[in-house]
Amino acid sequence: MVSxxxxxxxxxxxxxxxLLVAAVALMAGCVSRPKHPPAPRVAATSDYxxxxxPGDAVNVIVxxxxxxTTTVPVxxxxxxxxxxxxxxxxxxxxxxxLARDMEKALGKYIRDPVVTVIVTxxxxxxxxxxxxxxxxxxxxxxxxxQDMTMLDVMIAVGGITDFADGNSATLVRAAEGGKLYxxxxxxxxxxxxxxxxVDVKPGDVLVIPQSWF
Length: 213
Known about the structure:
This protein is 26% helix and 23% strand. It is an alpha+beta fold. It folds into 3 domains: 1-33; 35-47 and 127-208, Roll (Outer membrane lipoprotein wza fold like); 57-121, wza like fold (2-Layer Sandwich). The protein has a 5-stranded mixed beta sheet with strand order 7-6-10-8-9, with helices on one face. It contains 4 helices and 10 strands, in the order αββββαβββαββαβ.
């Protein structure tokens, strides 16, 4: 016959085991169940304009002044130096806006300058880069391009690792105050579900968690 104390100890151990199994099941459910609303498929806007960032290369063309025409990098401090003009701020401007500022600066030295600025190497400002962290094959920051989609991002980073929980990936949308969305990378990349492809926006951060199983 089992004593009351023995039965009490046995039932206590059973209760602990039941609680442990329930906790594991709950965690598994949390991992597999999306935590956030799905990302909207369409997010790109037609009025997007490229913003110059540090690390870009810009070709400054001064009409009828070949000696002032040059290609220069945008320094880490966001400025450029060209003939006759030193330390002109380029970061945060469109090529059109930078050309107009260049004309004002050159106007002190030549009459009615006409300037065209062409970006020849693209990095973009940090605030507009697409960042991919976690279980990507090559986590990195990417320059945003008009009409860029999640599939474009995945191709650039080499897809996801074998340890990724792709369907629980989270998209942090800076343009919407850090709103969180769920994206289905597993369905997109390994099941060919094009319906899982979504637009990305400047400043998006993609977090790919590791699978528990």
